[in-house]
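Archive record:
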Amino acid sequence: MVRRFDAPEALETRFYEVRAKSALNRVPAKSRVPFEWTVNPYRGCSHACHFCFARPTHEFLGFDAGRDFDKEIVVKVNVPEVLRAELAWPSWKRQHIAMGTNTDPYQWVEGRYKLMRGIWEALRDAANPCSILTKSPLLLRDVDLMREVAARAEVSACLSVPTLDEKAWRASEPHTPHPRARLEAVGELNRAGVPTGILIAPLMPGINDAPEQIERIIALATEAGAVSIGGQTLFLRGSVREIFFDWLRSYRPDLVPRYERLYARGAYVPERERRAIERAAGMPGFRKRYDPERYEHRGSARRREPRPARGEEVRQERLF
């Protein structure tokens, strides 16, 4: 650890500056996610989402998955330099790197440290394929670098938008940017030539799964030119289960019996019920819409993946 300091202006959060030995993280083979490598400049997240699946990772540092996850934030101050060195290894084969898969790289602290700019620069210079998932329109600050990456390698972005309902948003994601600001960012990024979609996740039965709610998100995302629309029902692994249930008892005590039944067997809703919940909500599974001409300015020298015909919807593996 380099230093530790409190930041009262950041909701009484304490930051730990550390020098990382590595930047690239290999995803375990048994993981359900469709990528092998990640980069996470921060550990812990001030967004304080009550359902966040990454909370148990804080326990590896000796912190708890509850308040500590929200208030004790680890900052890898040298991660751009370490990543640049690792991408230059002869053994590195320019595999796809996913960002925002554990904690949000564009949470509040990024406004101070600006680590993502150095990360984008390293990815650009290495012409390395990558993607980003975030809940913050702060991503727009780096659209210039994202476009430079896009000129040399495949890059995409995804904004998480679980709900547009003001009450549900403020209750479940207390320190995140407004969902409508995220949808506006989707439009701006697509207009800038960065393929961007949305993720409606998690879908929480009785809270944000009303068909009219999902329909409105999909309509606004489509209007913003979203190239993908995906999502998944809430899952509750490890200590997240207790944290979420504590929150549910205070926010919607009437739903507690239903959730106890849904999650009686483990972290996931049984497959049949999950499909019924998502179908009733009007969730599209995971669909992609392609418009090849929109991104032709990125150049044709690099390899392009085959694309379906325009307007064709393709069911793909869910991200989480």
Notes: The first strand starts at residue 3 and ends at 7. DSSP finds eleven helices and twelve strands in the chain. Residues 289-320 have pLDDT under 50 and may be disordered.
